[in-house]
C-alpha cells in the first residue's frame, strides 16, 4: 500500500512539474504574433492625453486598423489644431514607436498576406477604403484607387506614382483595400510593386 501511495505521489509531483514547465511555453506560442499596445497618447508636444485604452479597443488579435481621430480616441486635447498620436506597441518581439498625424491611419496587418482575386462576375465595383504606407503609418488613398476603375474593373500597379506620393520614404510599402463587387465586400493586401487587378 505504501508503495502504491508513493507511486501516485511521484506521478502527481511529476505531472505538476510538467504542467508548470510547459504552460509558459504554450502561452508564449499562443501569444506569438499578437499586437500589444504598450502606450498611446494623443495631442501636441507638451500637451498629450493618454489614450492607451481607447487604442487597445481597436486591436483584433493579430491586427489593428484605426483612424487617428477625436471620435475614435474619445477626446480632443487641442481643439482646432492638428494633433498626432504617439503609440508604442510590441509585435513579434519587436517594440516600435510611431508618430501618426490626425486623420491618418494606424494599421498593423495580420499574418495573412497576399491576394488571390476571387471570381466576381459582372457588377459595379466600389472602392470602400484604401490605405498605403508601412510600419503602421498609412495614407488614405481611396480616391486615387477609385480613379483607376474603368468599366467596373481595375488593373493598377501598387506604386507611389499611382497612389499620390510616398507616405514613408525609403521603406517598402504595402497596400490595403476594401472593395465591393456584386454586392459583396472583399479585402486585399498587396506589397508595393504588385498589381491590384479585378476583372469580370
Explain what you see:
With 200 residues, this protein is an alpha+beta fold. It folds into 2 domains: 35-108, no CATH class; 125-198, no CATH class. It has 4 helices and 14 strands. The protein has helices at residues 2-31, 52-56, 70-73, 142-146; strands at 35-44, 47-50, 59-60, 63-67, 84-91, 94-101, 105-108, 125-134, 137-140, 149-150, 153-157, 174-181, 184-191, 195-198. The strands form 3 sheets. The protein has a 7-stranded antiparallel sheet with strand order 3-4-7-9-8-12-13. Strand 5 (84-91) and strand 6 form a beta hairpin. The longest helix has 30 residues, at 2-31. The chain is elongated and about 50 Å long. The termini are far apart. Residues 4-31 have low confidence and may be disordered.
Keywords for this entry:
four-stranded antiparallel sheet; 2 domains; 200 residues; alpha+beta; elongated
Could you give a short description of this structure?
This protein has helices at 2-31, 52-56, 70-73, 142-146, and strands at 35-44, 47-50, 59-60, 63-67, 84-91, 94-101, 105-108, 125-134, 137-140, 149-150, 153-157, 174-181, 184-191, 195-198.
Could you outline the blueprint of secondary structure elements for this entry?
Blueprint: H1 2-31, E1 35-44, E2 47-50, H2 52-56, E3 59-60, E4 63-67, H3 70-73, E5 84-91, E6 94-101, E7 105-108, E8 125-134, E9 137-140, H4 142-146, E10 149-150, E11 153-157, E12 174-181, E13 184-191, E14 195-198
Antiparallel strand pairs: 1-2, 1-5, 3-4, 4-7, 5-6, 7-9, 8-9, 8-12, 10-11, 11-14, 12-13
